[in-house]
Amino acid sequence: MENNLPKHIGLIMDGNGRWAKKRGLPRKAGHTVGAQTFRKIVRACNKKGIGYLTVYAFSTENWKRPQEEIDAIIKLLRDYLKEAHKYLKENIRTRFIGDLSVFDQEIRDLIVEAEEASKDMTGLNLNIAINYGGRNEITHAVKTIVEQVQQGTLRADEIGEQIVADHLYTAGMPEVDLIIRPSGEYRLSNFLIWQSAYAEYIFMDDILWPDFSEKHLNAALEEFARRNRRFGGI
Ligand code: FPP
Fold first, then answer.
1. pTM of the model
2. Of 59, 38, 44, 58, nearest to 5 (Cα)?
3. Which residues, other chains included, contact 170 with Cβ-Cβ below 8 Å and sequence gap of 6+?
4. How many domains in the chain?
5. Got the DSSP string for 32-98?
């Protein structure tokens, strides 16, 4: 299996609300446990030698949720950012992708600090997607490319897929080759829509994100390796 590891995993951390509801707890309790699960799975991916992991922590659509729930997720993010220095000893490089301009100055400063502090780490590349939407990302890329054409630094006939890819948040990273989504939802939900055009999709319907463990990660990696063996080669 080691030789058949995905280069870039996209992970949709779904099912926190349902997990809480099943226990008669407020939805935010599901996110709190989900954030712990996130820490465990990041460590596990790093240990296994996965190159890139992108997690969907907050989408451009999540602002429609009740304010209390949004505040709870943002607080978890803030807490994580404050302890981000701890992850340096694990050699993890952390980046944030999405339209970060909507976040307050404290969060933006903490993001810059965490990215800067970890920029020379050579282990797992962790991307945390916040206020992220795939269509928003592509639209942003198109705008930047058009501006370059208008300024005369790029010719329209030079624009190809590579130019578009180079203007996404994931510029320079390998394409996503595995998407994992627990909780029984069989959708991409605007996550990495360009990057996962050729990905394998593994949807797990017997597990909600807070209960997701290394065992589930291993099962997904084994399934990925099997699929790759079947379709790889001649
Ligand atoms: C989807 O479950 C989950 C989210 C919208 C939030 C995910 C956020 C975290 C796990 C915490 C992030 C924290 C850090 C530190 C990155 P859902 O609420 O849609 O679940 P449901 O479908 O059961 O309602």
1. 0.96
2. 44
3. 54, 97, 127, 192, 195
4. 1
5. HHHHHHHHHHHHHHHHHT-SEEEEEEEETTGGGS-HHHHHHHHHHHHHHHHTGGGGGGGT-EEEEES
| Higher-confidence position of 92 and 232 | 92
Ligand 1, atom 8, lies closest to the CA of: 57
Domain membership flag for residue 203: yes
> Tens digits of per-residue pLDDT, 74-112?
999 999 999 988 888 999 999 999 999 999 999 999 999
pLDDT in tens, 195-211: 999 999 999 999 999 99
Ligand 1 and 28: CB distance under 6 A = no
Binding-site residues for substrate: 15-19, 27, 31, 59-61, 63, 65, 181, 187-189
In a domain? residue 69: yes
| Separation between Cα atoms, residue 228 and residue 234, nearest integer Å | 12
CATH code of 33's domain: 3.40.1180.10
Q: Which amino acid type is present at position 123? A: G
Which among 220, 224, 213 is positioned nearest to 38, based on CA atoms? 213
